[in-house]
Design brief:
The structure holds 2 protein chains of 2 kinds.
Chain A: H1 2-33, E1 40-44, E2 51-55, E3 61-64
Antiparallel strand pairs in A: 2-3
Chain B: H1 2-18, H2 22-25, H3 30-39, H4 41-51, H5 54-73, H6 80-85, H7 94-109, H8 112-133, H9 201-210, E1 222-228, E2 239-247, E3 255-261, E4 264-270, E5 279-281, E6 285-291, E7 297-302, E8 311-314, E9 317-320, E10 322-328, E11 336-342, E12 348-350, E13 356-361, H10 368-379, H11 385-392, E14 400-406, E15 411-416, E16 420-422, E17 431-432, E18 440-443, E19 451-453, E20 459-462, H12 484-495, H13 501-508, H14 514-529, H15 535-545, H16 556-577, H17 589-598, H18 612-625, H19 627-631, H20 641-644, E21 647-649, H21 652-656, H22 658-664, E22 666-669, E23 685-687, E24 689-694, E25 702-705, H23 722-727, H24 737-743, E26 746-752, H25 760-763
Parallel strand pairs in B: 7-17
Antiparallel strand pairs in B: 1-2, 1-20, 2-23, 2-24, 3-4, 4-5, 5-6, 6-14, 7-13, 8-9, 10-11, 12-13, 14-15, 15-19, 16-18, 21-22, 24-25
Helix pairs in contact in B: 1-3, 1-5, 1-7, 4-7, 10-11, 14-16, 14-18, 16-18
The chains are: A alpha+beta, B alpha+beta.
Chain lengths: ~80, ~775
């Protein structure tokens, strides 16, 4: 009887641990998945022209359209 | 790009404007929804969209396209908040951006509850004591505006008040939360719910803060700005500084951006959801804003026909009110239905004292929002004072003290907005609405609005205090903010020369409290004749003797003064206004106390006190008794001002999910400063952004917001700016190509995907 209770408790503990780890993992994945993309080249529907965005160390964004006088000499890596 | 960082905040902001928060939060936000539905923000936004020219509308269309592209491509990985609340955002419409603008207008312009407060005070005290209590000027005022050309100095006229329409206003009307409705809303005819408005707890104010939708009557809500000419700077060119004070929130109210396009190169802060730089600079000019606080909201007591409740009286004839049925979706509950009645003055917003009070407000007037949008768009393009003021000519409100500087070395000031001129009265209390007697007849002409250009002093500063001299020929408001911040800024600017950016930051974070220094002086003077009996009060007086007037975090003297001032107000006012004073807020309350003591107005002497000095010492004793409960200890070592105003930036979901609150909220931290120091601080609001622009070298300019650019908790930019903000440091506003190149750490290229086509102008979703 004591063994059964012990097993049951251990199983419950493992289950609880799995839920916590799983929940934590899900939360971590959720918050990471939605993070802003600051460094990439990609295509998006909805844009009529190319747009570049430059971010400083505080993510202060400069938006630069193509052929703009400003930042025209900048090369995008 | 803004959507990447702030989509949830943007979604909430448009929901606030359109009265749709309860669809997400349930009945806890019903009060906010009812208020904005009643004001008709949705109708104003839609009407405005139709008024805009294609050119003016284009940025809204492009912005909506971008936001919708983000939503469409991120449906499966939206920010955490959408997942936790289990909903998806609808596509962004052009009018949503206009709703975001309306939220800010409302924050900075909501004064109608003050009219009810003033009415109640007049009913209780009569006209003379009311005039004592609610002063509209102070010896510390620093009016920056010149008199309009050709205007003659005229003796100050006594304001005309309409006959009282309510004997004793229900005091509960003064206790409404920041963005709440008056109690009358709960009993409006045709409401389906008898008592539908539950307590909102902190969610109400947290949301209001996040969405920049507080109420300007909050103590501490305000701003500082100033500009000094090259004669006062090390570089020989102007320096311009601005720090708007708003309710704190997670994420920050502002989003910093630098927009470039052919003919446009502007940098500064925007509101998430609104594609405009609101405060900032371009290649030629810089500008900053503080709230002027004009009275542009008037209440009219309408007379409805008891037999036909939708008809009201106008000049002896019955007129039909516009009637609008509203349905608010409430999560987990049945829809909430109610009817809004709109008279010729505006919507009925209150039924206090059994009256139907209609609100006339400049922001709801035809073309007000479209003109405002056009004006702010043009400000960013202006290249000199002429073009800047030409843009302001269209600016309808909220009335702002615009300070200006350009690279040619000019400085200027203009307080722009539609400010009503009334046939009679000053709109300070509810007026009869059944005739035209108290109606608006026009607005102050633009040329006569307060302004100044290259003043000989080379200094312009505003901080929500009175900006016009006593003989200014028009009425702007009788509800100016206290003069202490303005006076202190002038004190510091006049004392120095060869200012640098660091000097400007030091002024922005100055914590000398003129308000408490004055009170400390009064207490020391009173102590000569009425030495306190209580040992704790004696100890408190000893703290004041060598105090330097700085409201540091560990300052015990500041704490003594703050609790004493509150106790003094209560001791003087409770016998007159009743025990519950929590609903009475006005910016010049300390000026009232100054006047009472300086002029020995014994008419305010509480019964049982032999002199006002005795009143002051008794208030000290009373205030000091409250200190242990405020600091949580009986030890004198715990008398630290900063711990009594802990600062926490709250995330709205922290209110509903306490464990998440630990993850999402930022704080609590002790603070230096008071509500009236240049660094304005209370537990819930303070500087929302700090900017200093150097017109000699724009790349030397600095700007920072409270927490960070991103609203996403796991982003490195969630609160990366907090430490600098808290300690009064800032970051470069890289502006030139070379500076931007040097500062860049991330590069992103977004290209059109031809496969999917664009939303295009015709494809944008408008008010889905």
């Amino acid at each position: 009887m004591r063994q059964t209770i012990k097993r049951l408790l251990i199983s419950l503990l493992i289950l609880l641990l799995l839920i916590i780890v799983g929940g934590g993992g899900w939360l971590y994945w959720r918050v990471r998945a939605s993070l802003p993309q600051l460094e990439e080249r990609f295509k998006l529907p909805g844009y009529q022209r190319q747009l570049r965005s430059y971010a400083t160390r505080t993510a202060f964004l400069t938006f630069v359209p193509p052929r703009s006088r400003t930042c025209s000499s900048r090369k995008v890596t | 790009m803004t959507a990447q960082d702030r989509l949830w905040q943007m979604d909430l902001s448009r929901r606030l404007a359109e009265g749709e928060l309860s669809e997400v939060f349930g009945e806890r936000t019903l009060r906010l929804d009812l208020e904005n539905r009643t004001l008709g923000f949705r109708q104003v936004s839609q009407r405005t969209l139709a008024e805009l020219s294609p050119e003016a509308r284009a940025p809204l269309t492009a912005y909506a396209n971008g936001v919708n592209a983000f939503i469409a491509s991120h449906r499966d990985r939206l920010p955490l908040e959408f997942r936790l609340l289990n909903y998806q955002p609808r596509p962004w419409g052009e009018s949503d951006s206009l709703g975001v603008a309306l939220n800010l207008v409302k924050t900075l312009n909501t004064t109608w509850r003050t009219d009810l407060m003033r009415e109640r005070i007049r009913a209780k005290l009569g006209p003379d004591l009311s005039a004592d209590l609610l002063p509209d000027n102070s010896p510390l005022d620093e009016p920056v505006a010149e008199l309009p050309p050709g205007s003659k100095v005229s003796p100050k006229k006594k304001p005309v008040y309409p006959p009282p329409t309510c004997g004793d206003l229900d005091p509960s009307v003064l206790h409404e939360p920041v963005a709440g409705l008056p109690p009358g809303y709960a009993v409006m005819p045709q409401r389906k719910h008898a008592n539908p408005l539950p307590g909102l707890g902190d969610l109400d104010s947290t949301l209001a803060a996040l969405l920049s939708s507080g109420d300007e009557s909050n103590p501490g809500l305000g701003s500082n700005n100033w500009v000094v000419s090259g004669a006062h700077t090390q570089s020989g060119k102007p320096l311009l500084a601005n720090d708007p004070h708003l309710d704190h929130s997670v994420p920050s109210v502002w989003y910093m951006i630098h927009l470039t396009a052919p003919g446009l190169n502007v940098i500064g802060v925007s509101l998430p959801g609104l594609p405009l730089v609101i405060i900032g600079h371009n290649e030629k000019i810089a500008w900053g804003m503080t709230n002027t606080g004009p009275d542009v909201q008037d209440l009219y007591s309408e007379s409805f026909d008891s037999g036909a409740p939708n008809r009201y009286l106008h000049n002896g004839a019955w007129v039909d009110a516009e009637v609008r049925d509203e349905v608010v979706k409430v999560r987990g509950k049945r829809d909430y239905r109610f009817t809004v009645k709109v008279t010729r003055h505006g919507p009925i917003v209150s039924e206090s004292c059994g009256r139907d009070l209609a609100l006339r407000w400049t922001a709801l007037e035809p073309h007000a929002l479209s003109a405002l949008f056009n004006a702010v768009s043009k400000i960013g393009l202006a290249q000199n004072w002429e073009l800047f003021t030409a843009a302001l000519r269209d600016y309808t409100g909220p009335m702002q003290n615009f300070v200006y500087a350009d690279r040619d070395g000019n400085i200027g000031y203009y307080a722009a907005a539609w400010v009503p001129i009334r046939k009679q009265g000053i709109g300070a209390v509810p007026a009869p609405g059944s005739t035209d007697d108290y109606d608006w007849t026009g607005y102050i002409p633009f040329e006569d609005l307060p302004h100044s250009y290259n003043p000989s002093s080379g200094i312009i500063a505003t901080a929500n205090g009175r900006v016009v001299p006593d003989d200014y020929p028009y009425f702007i408001t009788s509800h100016w903010e206290s003069p202490f911040r303005t006076a202190r800024i002038f004190q510091l600017l006049r004392a120095g020369k060869a200012f640098t950016i660091d000097d400007m930051l030091r002024i922005q974070t100055d914590i000398v409290t003129l308000e408490d220094s004055w009170l400390a002086g009064q207490l020391l003077k009173a102590d000569f004749h009425h030495h306190p009996q209580d040992p704790e009060a004696q100890y408190a007086v000893s703290l004041l003797r060598h105090w330097d007037g700085e409201a540091r975090m560990d300052s015990a003297a500041t704490l003594v003064c703050e609790v004493t001032r509150q106790a003094l107000l209560e001791r003087i006012l409770k016998p007159r206004l009743g025990d519950d004073l929590s609903g009475y807020h006005w910016g010049m309350s300390t000026t009232f106390l100054e006047n009472v003591l300086a002029n020995n107005w014994t008419r305010w002497l509480p019964r049982g006190d032999s002199s006002l000095e005795e009143t002051l010492i008794k208030s000290l004793e009373e205030g000091v008794k409250q200190i242990p409960s405020r600091v949580g200890s009986r030890s004198h070592d715990a008398w630290k001002w900063g711990n009594t105003i802990p600062l926490t930036f709250y995330h709205p979901l922290g209110q509903g999910f306490p464990l998440l609150g630990r993850l999402l909220d930022v704080g609590a931290f002790p603070q230096a400063g008071t509500a009236t120091t240049v660094k304005a601080t209370t537990s819930r609001h303070g500087p929302s952004m700090r900017m200093v622009v150097d017109l000699s070298t724009l790349d030397h300019s600095v700007q920072n917001i409270t927490l960070g650019e991103s609203g996403q908790v796991s982003s490195p930019y969630y609160q990366d700016q907090f430490d600098a903000w808290y300690n009064g440091r800032s970051f470069p506003m890289s502006f030139s190509d070379a500076a931007v190149e040097q500062a860049t750490v991330h590069r992103l290229v977004l290209r059109p995907d031809k496969k999917f086509g664009g939303w295009g102008a015709g494809g944008v979703i408008v008010n889905p």
